[in-house]
Amino acid sequence: MRAYDSLRRRGDFARVTRRGRRRAGAFLTCFVADGRRRTRVGITVSGAVGIAVVRNRLRRRIKALLDRYPLGMPPFHDIVVIARKGAGELAFEALAAEVGRVLGQAG
């Protein structure tokens, strides 16, 4: 069972990016806003990252990292993770370090 739910509505993404605290790494940006009942996470991958195959693979990798390390996420918050250009070429270990660093700053 996942430690978080997914952000799905465009308005929820907009609210988090508008009102949330911003933390940026070299390849990822994270916005964290106060949530309601449970932690919710939304992942967006910029078109500059690459073709759809690369973007979807990166999205799956980030989800796998969040499933593996749920303790790094702030509880009861809405989180938006934005992957930027260059993130698609990162090795899994480097991506794990980047996700941990950005979420650690956000906590």
Summarize the structure in words.
With 107 residues, this protein is α/β, with parallel strands linked by helices. The protein is 39% helix and 24% strand. It has 3 helices and 5 strands; from the N terminus they run E-H-E-E-E-H-E-H. It has a 5-stranded mixed sheet, with helices on both faces. Strand 4, helix 2 (52-68) and strand 5 form a beta-alpha-beta unit. It is globular, with a radius of gyration of 13 Å. The mean pLDDT is 89. It comes from Vulcanimicrobium alpinum. Keywords: Endonuclease, Hydrolase, Nuclease, RNA-binding, tRNA processing. Belongs to the RnpA family.
Spatially, the strands of the biggest sheet line up as 1-4-5-3-2
N-to-C SSE series? EHEEEHEH
| Average pLDDT reading | 89
Output the radius of gyration: 13 Å
The helix/strand class is alpha/beta
DSSP helix fraction: 25-40%
Profile the largest sheet.
5 strands, mixed
- How far apart are the termini? 22 Å
- The fraction of residues in strands falls at 15-25%
Q: What's the total helix number?
A: 3
What oligomeric arrangement do these chains adopt?
single chain
In the predicted model, the low-confidence regions spanning at least 5 consecutive residues are: none
- What is the strand tally? 5
**Silhouette:** globular
Subunit structure: Consists of a catalytic RNA component (M1 or rnpB) and a protein subunit.
Catalytic activity: Endonucleolytic cleavage of RNA, removing 5'-extranucleotides from tRNA precursor
Organism: Vulcanimicrobium alpinum
Enzyme class: hydrolase
